[in-house]
Design goal:
It is a single chain. By secondary structure, the chain is α/β, with parallel strands linked by helices. The protein has a single domain, classed as Rossmann fold. Helices cover 45% and strands 14% of the residues. It is built from 14 helices and 8 strands. Strands 1-4-3-2-5-6-8-7 form an 8-stranded mixed β-sheet, with helices on both faces. Helix 10 links the parallel strand 5 and strand 6. Helix 4 runs antiparallel to helix 6 and helix 11 packs antiparallel against helix 12. The longest helix is centred in the N-terminal third of the chain and has 27 residues. It is globular and about 60 Å long.
Length: 362
């Protein structure tokens, strides 16, 4: 196995990480309930609670949202800068570790394509304000080190990946493809659920894949990581039994989302399953949970450089799958370990399930 390197941190660097990480956790656990409480106290002023703009106009009158929005963006910048300062100080060693892959005794493998260009839709944005976007040289570290405090440790066991993997109907699957796999957190559950299957993790980012390959080896998972585009994989027709994607679709423009659905249909054998997991659509949030949730997701997407998120959450996913050729399409609410609760046990804005859409290749 290949261990994740012991990145040296001074006491000051560790203290800085702990402090900024604690602030990041408070952003999730402190400001959320405050926003929810303020909304409940003032929602009777809304004429149309389902109107995102009207909800936004209300929330922008309150200090909880105004400061929380400011805090979120600047806290992310602090976290990324703290991580980069540690990595850049040891840059030569970190680069050497990332570039040492496919060695003797490796369980899985990493296939890179030096000719693959960064998609146009990712060249001028930094999703979630991550410096250099997902294709910067230390992107895997930045993502993995940030995600734990951001999610308050509630995805440290890859819970979100497990939720979708368990939602895929059982079967004797031989080849499984995880699109937009990043560092592999959505990929690894398939290795345990289907130990005899070939598990493939696909992403456009070489740096995310390098880190993911190392992470997989350190955990004893056999994964074939490959650098390709989800909308144009280059694999033969009918070459997989399952194609999945966690948190990919909200990071794609509408035209590309449709291309990915058609590509998944092409890749699957008859009877194969396509499954994705995201936040619920705006309509579901507004009608079944809280209009505040819809506004906060919309505003976060616009503020944190997730430009395709609002359009995706407004889209009919069942129709998207059906137009891509899938049958037996259904939306499935899934457990959400990140769900927030008010101090009295009542729901507040973040208390909604994750949302899977699952279809079958006829």
């Amino acid at each position: 196995m290949t261990a994740i390197p012991d990145i040296q941190r001074s006491r000051a660097e560790q203290a800085r990480l702990d402090f900024v990480g604690g602030l990041m956790a408070f952003n999730s656990t402190g400001f959320g309930p405050a926003m929810g409480a303020w909304y409940r106290e003032n929602e009777n002023r809304l004429q149309d609670p389902s109107d995102i703009r009207e909800v936004g106009g209300l929330m922008e009158q309150g200090n909880a949202y105004r400061f929380g929005a400011f805090f979120e963006r600047h806290n992310h910048a602090q976290m990324f800068r703290a991580i980069l300062d540690i990595l850049e100080r040891q840059g030569e060693d970190v680069r050497a570790w990332l570039d040492d892959f496919n060695g003797a005794g490796a369980l899985g493998c990493l296939e890179l394509d030096p000719e693959l260009e960064t998609p146009r839709y990712y060249r001028k944005i930094e999703i979630h304000t991550q410096p250099g976007n997902y294709h910067a040289e230390f992107a895997g570290f930045l993502y993995h080190w940030m995600i734990s405090p951001f999610l308050v440790g509630r995805d440290d066991g890859d819970e979100m990946g497990w939720n979708l993997a368990r939602a895929v109907p059982g079967g004797d699957y031989r080849r499984i493809l995880d699109l937009g796999c990043g560092v592999g957190k959505s990929t690894f559950p398939y290795c345990e659920l289907h130990p005899d299957a070939e598990v493939v993790g696909l992403d456009y980012s070489a740096s995310m894949l390098k880190y993911g390959h190392k992470l997989a080896e350190s955990r004893g998972h056999k994964v074939h990581f490959t650098q390709r585009l989800a909308e144009d994989t280059g694999y033969p027709d009918g070459s997989f039994d399952v194609v999945s994607a966690v948190w990919l679709f909200h990071e794609l423009p509408g035209k590309v989302r449709a291309q990915v659905v058609r590509e998944a249909h092409r890749l699957l054998r008859p009877g194969g399953v396509f499954a994705i997991m995201e936040s619920p659509p705006f309509k579901v949030l507004q009608e079944e949970y809280s209009p505040l949730s819809a506004f906060l997701l919309d505003s976060t997407g616009r503020r944190m450089e997730d430009p395709f998120l609002p359009g995706f959450l407004a889209e009919d996913r069942v129709r998207m799958f059906e137009e891509g050729g899938f049958s037996e399409v259904r939306d499935v609410p899934l457990p959400n370990e990140l769900t927030g609760w008010g101090f009295g046990g009542e729901y507040f804005f973040g208390a909604y399930p994750w949302w899977a859409t699952i279809g079958v290749r006829p």
